[in-house]
Amino acid sequence: TTAIQGDIGVGTGGVTEGLKNRVVMPLMETNQTTRHVIGHELVHAFQYHLLLDKTSNGDIGNLGNLPLWMIEGMAEYLSLGKKDAYTSMWMRDAYLNKDIPSIKDLTTSSKYFPYRYGEAFWSYMGSTYGDSVIVPFFKNTARFGLDYGIRRTFGYDEKTLSSLWKNSIEATYKPYLKDTLQIPVGIKVIDDKNSGKMNVAPAISPDGKYIAFLSEKNLFSIDLFLADAKTGRVLRKITSKVSNTHIDEFNFIESAGAWSPDGKRFAFSVFNEGRNKIVIVDVKSGRVLQETSMGKAKQFSNLSWSPNGNDIVFNALAEGQSDLYLYNIPSKNVTQLTNDKYTDYQPSFSHDGKKIVFTSDRTTYDQSLEQTI
User: Other C-beta atoms within 10 Å of 116: how many?
Assistant: First the structure.
C-alpha cells in the first residue's frame, strides 16, 4: 500500500495513525482474524484519543512513558477478552519453565513477547480490579511513568504488583500440572543452538527423514533450510531470497510449505511485488522448477500436495473472500473449489486423493461440499 511509508513486514496485521486519525489494514485470511485485527487497531485509536485529549491532560509526547507490553497487551485484551486459549498456552509454558517475568522484566527485556504477556497482565487487571481501572492506569502511566503510575493507581509499588500477578498465574496453572501423568512425547531437534533464533514453518518429508523449515540462521534474511529430522542437524540451505531476486519475502507467518509425495520437490508460498506466488524447488539442487501466480487469488497459504503429485490445494483470499483452490501443476490451471462467505482454511488431501478436509467457521454442515475432487 502507499498509505503507509516504508516497508510493511509480513507480521504486520494493521497500522493505526494517531495524528491522521485512521486505521490501515488488509482483509485477513480468516473472518475471525479480520475481526480481531479491527478490534485491536481500534483500541490503539482510542489510546491515541486519550493521549491527544487536552481536557484530561493528554499529551502525545507522553507516549514514550508507556511500555510496549502495556499498549499492545491492552489492545489484545480488549479485542480478545479475559480468556484467550493462545495466551493461556504461553502462560502455562512460562509457569512450567519457571520463567514468569516481573513487570520490570516486561518493560526492559525483549525476551518476553509484549502481545501475549501484556494481554495476560491486563486480563489479571480486569479480573482483579475490574475494567474501570484501565483508563486511570493508562493515563497515570502516560503522564507520570510506569512506577509512579502504579503507585498512583493502586497504592503500592511495581514489585508488589508483580508478585500479585505472578501469584495469580501460579495459582491458575499449578492445579493442571498435578493431573499431568504422562511426560510429553518428543524432543527438541532445532533451536538457536544449531540454527537461528527464529525457526518456523516446519514440514516433514513423506519418508520422515527430513524437515524443511524457515529460519534467520544466516542473519541477513529468512531462508529455507533442510535438516535431518532425527538429529536436527542442518544439512543445507534450499533457497534464499538473497539469491532469488523474485522472492521479496517468505510467507512464514500463516503457512508452511508442502513436500511432493516422492520427497523430491518442495512447494511454498512467497511474496513478490505485493502478491503471493507458489514456488516449487528441487530439494536436492535447490533449483527453482516453477514460480507461478494463482490468478485472482493474490493472497494464499497452507499448501497441500496431492498423493498423485499433480495437484496442490490451498486456501486463498480473493475479493475479500476466503476459499479453497486447486492448482494443477502440469497444466498450471487454477480451479476454485469453494465459493461462499465462510472462511475455508488449512486444506489437506485424503490418502487416496479423492477428498479434501479443511477447517471452516461455517456453523452448519453443507452436504454439497462432500464431493469427489
Answer: 22
